[in-house]
Design a protein that fits this description.
single chain, about 160 residues, alpha/beta, two-stranded antiparallel ribbon, globular
C-alpha cells in the first residue's frame, strides 16, 4: 500500500525522476526527467506556494486569521489558492482582467477572491491594487513572490 498523507500539501514535491534511456543511447551521459506534473496542481509553482505560506507560518507572520493578498497572472496564484484552501487561510488575488476566464474560475473554485485590474495596466496595476488592499485590510500579508526568499530557496532545496 502507498503512503497515506495527512493533507494534500504534504504531497507537493513528491515528483519522480525518470531516466531517459533512448535519448541518451550511446552517449556517456545520464539524463533525468523531473516530473513536476505529479504535483497536486501539476505545476512546479506548487512548491513555491507551499514554501512561502509555510515560511510565513513558521515566522509567525501568517496565522489562520491573516488574509493573504498577492498579485498574480497565473500559476503562483493557483498554487497559493490551493495551499491556502488546504490550510484554511483567506486569500485575495489581484490580476489583470486579461487573464483567462478558466484561470479565474479555477481560482474561485479553490476559494480565492479574485480582484481584477485594468488589463492596460498589466501586472503593475495588479501589484498596485494588492498593495492598496493590504493597506486597507487589517492583519493581511503579501507573500511578494518575486522578493520572497522562500521562493528560490525551495527550488535550491528540492527541485534541483
Amino acid at each position: 500500500m502507498g503512503r497515506i498523507y495527512n493533507n494534500i500539501v504534504e504531497t507537493v514535491g513528491r515528483t519522480p525522476l525518470v531516466r531517459l534511456n533512448r535519448v541518451t543511447e550511446g552517449l556517456p551521459a545520464t539524463i533525468l526527467l523531473k516530473c513536476e506534473f505529479f504535483n497536486p496542481l501539476s505545476s512546479v509553482k506548487d512548491r513555491i506556494g507551499m514554501a512561502m505560506i509555510e515560511a510565513a507560518e513558521k515566522s509567525g507572520v501568517l496565522k489562520k486569521e491573516t488574509t493573504i493578498i498577492e498579485p498574480t497572472s497565473g500559476n503562483t496564484g493557483i498554487a497559493l489558492a490551493f495551499v491556502a484552501a488546504a490550510k484554511g487561510n483567506k486569500l485575495v488575488l489581484t490580476m489583470p482582467e486579461t487573464m483567462s476566464v478558466e484561470r479565474r474560475t479555477l481560482l474561485a473554485l479553490l476559494g480565492a477572491k479574485v480582484v481584477l485590474t485594468p488589463g492596460a495596466e498589466g501586472m503593475r496595476g495588479a501589484i498596485n491594487r494588492a498593495t492598496s488592499l493590504a493597506a486597507e485590510t487589517p492583519n493581511s500579508w503579501i507573500p511578494q513572490q518575486f522578493e520572497n526568499e522562500a521562493n528560490p530557496e525551495i527550488h535550491r532545496k528540492t527541485t534541483a
